[in-house]
Design brief:
Keywords: DNA-binding, Phosphoprotein. This protein is of the alpha/beta class. The protein has helices at 10-21, 38-44, 61-71, 86-95, 110-119, and strands spanning 2-6, 27-32, 49-52, 55-56, 59-60, 76-81, 99-102.
C-alpha cells in the first residue's frame, strides 16, 4: 500500500514515519506539511491511502479531503487531528473520510486501520 501523509507538525510526521516503518507492505510515498501542493503530490505518488490533518498552516484539510474523494474516491483517508469535536468528526465523515482519529487518544489505531484496508484489497 502506498501511503501519503499531510501533516504540518514535524513531531507528528516523525511519529507516523516511525510507526509505519514497522508495518510490512506499507510504503510512505510522500509527506507534505501544507494543502497547497498536496493534491498533485498525492496523485503523482500513486497513493492508495493518506493520513490527513484538518488544521494545517495554509488552510483546512477538509477541503483537500473533498477534492480527493470527488476525483479519486478509491483513495482511503484517515483524518488525524487534535480538533476532534463531534462537529469536525461529522464534517470529515460527510466529506468522505474513511476513519477519524484524535491525535492524543487514537494514534495507536493507525496500524490496525491500515492493515484492515490492506486485507480488503487496497494497495498492491
Amino acid at each position: 500500500m502506498n501511503l501519503f501523509i499531510v501533516e504540518d507538525s514535524l513531531l507528528i510526521q516523525n511519529r507516523l514515519v516511525s510507526f509505519i516503518e514497522e508495518l510490512s507492505d506499507i510504503s510512505i510515498v510522500g509527506i507534505t506539511p501544507d494543502i497547497g501542493s498536496a493534491y498533485d503530490k498525492i496523485l503523482n505518488a500513486h497513493a492508495d491511502a493518506m493520513i490527513l490533518d484538518i488544521q494545517l498552516s495554509d488552510g483546512n484539510g477538509l477541503n483537500l479531503l473533498k477534492k480527493i474523494k470527488n476525483t479519486h474516491p478509491e483513495i482511503r483517508v484517515v483524518v488525524l487531528t487534535n480538533h476532534s469535536s463531534e462537529a469536525n468528526r461529522m464534517q470529515a465523515l460527510r466529506a468522505g473520510a474513511d476513519s477519524f482519529l484524535d491525535k492524543s487518544t487514537d494514534f495507536e489505531q493507525i496500524p490496525s486501520i491500515l492493515h484492515r484496508w490492506q486485507a480488503t484489497g487496497l494497495g498492491h
